[in-house]
Amino acid sequence: MDFDDDRLGRARVRDTAELDAYYDELAGLDAGALWTVANKIEPWYPRPESVPTHWPYAKLRPLVTKALDLVSGDDAGRRVVALYNPERRDLAAAVGLLYTGLQIMGPGESMTAHRHQAAALRFVLEGTGAWTIVDGQKLSVGPRDFAITPNWTWHEHGNEADDGPVIWQDGLDIPLVNALDAPFYEVHPDIYQKQEGVVNSSLLVYGAGQLRPVGDPWHKNHSPLLAYPWEPTYEALLKAAKATDGSPYDGVIMEYANPVTGGSVMPTMSAHMQLLRAGEATLAHRQVGSKIYTVAKGSGSSVVAGKRFQWTEGDIFCVPSWAWHEHANASRSEDACLFSFNDFPVMRSLGFFREECYTDNDGHQEVAA
């Protein structure tokens, strides 16, 4: 396709002294000529300001743990080290309109309850005593477990263990909510919630996956299953790997699903876990939408928009919208697993999503839309 802006159908007005004076007149009325910015605001294809970025866990962890002695959880609200994209710090975004950070809670510590318009998710990196209460339901989660905090649900967190801190990754759509001028925030009137029912009740009711309670009245737009443990997730990937070759672009990949609808866990964000077999290297593809990856298991490398990242367990890296990316497992004997979350539900709902694969002859073949 010809991406030349100096062609019929694109803005190609040449500046003159008379036009410059005209633009000044328009500016005096907080107006402007569309043709001066049309090609910038309507590019041929996505040109995100976010850049591929890699956050090594080995370097971040000492600074995350250092925060335990520097600030209290009560004063911080949440003791989190936010991860910023170099080009999106103004939005507190890690990539596109997605936020992520590393939250730490010391032994026996608990945080106060609140709720906000932004939806949130958690991926546990380390610690044995992590818990969260979401609208009265208490969830116990451990390393590599995934949990959700749907928007406008009361939630609080803590660490019941006495043997060390809990560190988990937060993922939120805060930049999206703020870009839409839709944020709200409340502190719980009782500061802490009252637990309702048994621990992990949503997992006990909906965790079977292929079974749904008869007469289930669930009608909300997010998953009723609030926690997705690592063990059955990994087992599902291993079983699938025996029966299928998986995707040439992602290996064996599965989406964390709403057990009622089969769709994404929340309206604005979806999450996946993928398995790369020993020595497996994927082909490159690109998608409209932003993604944040966390290495759940193993080590390897990814090439994102021509930039290579060597990763190991706990590392986080991002893929901007419409950026070519591919992955490789460095081990010849062990598998590797990548957790990721994205804004694909938003892109699909708005009719924006599309995907292309990279071909050897430098052509592009659309594989989904």
Discrete helix count = 8
Chain oligomer state: single chain
Shape: globular
Report strand %: 25-35%
As residue ranges, the low-confidence spans are 364-369
Topology, number of strands: 23
- Could you tell me how far the N terminus lies from the C terminus, measured between alpha carbons in angstroms? 18 Å
- Write out the strand line-up for the largest beta sheet, numbering strands in chain order: 1-19-16-21-14-13
Which second-level CATH architecture of the largest domain applies? Sandwich
For the report, how would you describe the main beta sheet? 6 strands, antiparallel
| Total of domains | 2
Mean pLDDT across the residues is 95
Write up what this structure looks like.
There is one protein chain. The protein is α+β, with helices and mostly antiparallel strands. The protein folds into 2 domains: 1-44, no CATH class; 54-368, Sandwich (Jelly Rolls). Helices cover 18% and strands 30% of the residues. It is built from 8 helices and 23 strands. Strands 1-19-16-21-14-13 form a 6-stranded antiparallel β-sheet. A 6-stranded antiparallel β-sheet has the order 2-3-10-5-8-12. A 3-stranded antiparallel β-sheet has the order 7-6-9, with no helix packed on it. A hairpin with a 2-residue loop joins strand 6 (130-134) and strand 7. The model is unreliable at 364-369 (pLDDT under 50).
